[in-house]
Amino acid sequence: MKKKICYFKMIFVSIFFLFSSFMQGSELTKEELERLRFIQDSFKKGEKHSKYWQWGYFGLYSGGAVFKLATHLGYKDPLTEEDKHKKFDALVDFGKSTIGSLGLWFRPIIGDRAYGQLKDMKDDKSKLDLAETLFTNTFKRVRGELSWIRRLSALGVNSIAALLIYNDGKRSKDALINFSIGMVVSEIMIRTVPKRVLKDYSDYQKRFKGVGKSQAFFKDVRLLPGINSLHLSASF
Question: pTM score, two decimals?
Answer without folding.
Answer: 0.78
